[in-house]
Amino acid sequence: MVTTNDRVLMGRWGTERSYDELSKMPDPKKRGSRHNPMRFDRSIDLVYQSVTGWNFEIEDPHYYINNSRTAMIMTMTLAKDGLAFNKDGDYITAMMKTSTNSTWATEFYAGSGTRVCSNGLIWADHQFKGKNTLNAEGSLRLKLIDLIERLPQIVGVLNEQWEHYDNYDLSSRQQSNDILVQAAESDVISYRDIPHVKEHWETPEHPEFKGRNLGNMVQAFTSHQRTKSPFETPSFSRKLITFMDDYSDRRKEQSHEPDSQIRPLQTVHPDA
């Protein structure tokens, strides 16, 4: 599900187009003997064929092309009866990005989002990338089928991960401040982002996010990320989830260390 804010940000990069408009664009030009760019509508067709072939449905698709008409982003929700996350209302969100001038390879990401706020978190463990060379179409089809085939397993992994996050207590103000500082130190966010993420944590947008646990801290990070370019989402998500996994394990190991090891938020200057 793409939010209105996402569409505004996409609009700064390019324009949302219909499938019909994309199908009327001229064939892309080759940039060498091995370069074999796919038409945007053909890339979309392959996604539909691969997804529906495994009894998934694509919901809420959107297509965006840049101003030079050489790059495209496709966002979508993947749905299947009986396949859902543990958290109420969660679903599978996916994104494909591709180009016809070698600016981007063709990349496909699958992850989780929430219908409450459509945070669009992309779990980078579940992605693939392919070059636009002579066998690009066949390679894309095989990689898509492989990913779609593994989605039930992926959902199971995500369920376990969210359960871990939701059961990880962050009721201590000192601990929640600590995680924000360490996220900046780990380059997940900038120091200037700390007060904004802190605001989402202390004043969540939705009552579902008021619980003081690691899962809702993830929501605070992603709520702030929605104010930035959606093209940064895969990289941000990868860093965020890696950090959260590492942090929660590290916090278990540090649970018996003195409180002096926890650095309060107010000791960090935003311009550091």
Account of the 3D structure:
The chain is an alpha+beta fold and 272 residues long. The chain has two domains: 4-154, no CATH class; 167-267, no CATH class. It is 42% helix and 17% strand. It is built from nine helices and six strands. It has helices at residues 4-13, 19-23, 40-52, 136-149, 151-166, 173-185, 194-202, 214-225, 233-253; strands at 14-17, 57-66, 71-79, 90-99, 106-114, 127-130. Strands 1-2-3-4-5-6 form a six-stranded antiparallel beta sheet. The protein is globular.
Proportion of strand residues: 15-25%
The DSSP helix count reads 9
- Measured distance between first and last alpha carbons: 36 Å
Report the mean per-residue pLDDT as an integer. Answer: 77
Number of structural domains: 2
- Oligomeric state of this protein: single chain
Work out the helicity level: 40-55%
Q: List segments where confidence is low: pLDDT < 50 over at least 5 consecutive residues.
A: 1-5, 114-118, 253-272
Radius of gyration: 20 Å
Largest beta-sheet details:
6 strands, antiparallel
Structure summary:
With 272 residues, the protein is α+β, with helices and mostly antiparallel strands.
Summarize the SSE layout with pairings:
Blueprint: H1 4-13, E1 14-17, H2 19-23, H3 40-52, E2 57-66, E3 71-79, E4 90-99, E5 106-114, E6 127-130, H4 136-149, H5 151-166, H6 173-185, H7 194-202, H8 214-225, H9 233-253
Antiparallel strand pairs: 1-2, 2-3, 3-4, 4-5, 5-6
Helix pairs in contact: 3-4, 5-8, 7-8, 8-9
Notable traits:
single chain; 272 residues; alpha+beta; 2 domains; 6-stranded antiparallel β-sheet; 9 helices; 6 strands; 17% strand; disordered N terminus; disordered C terminus
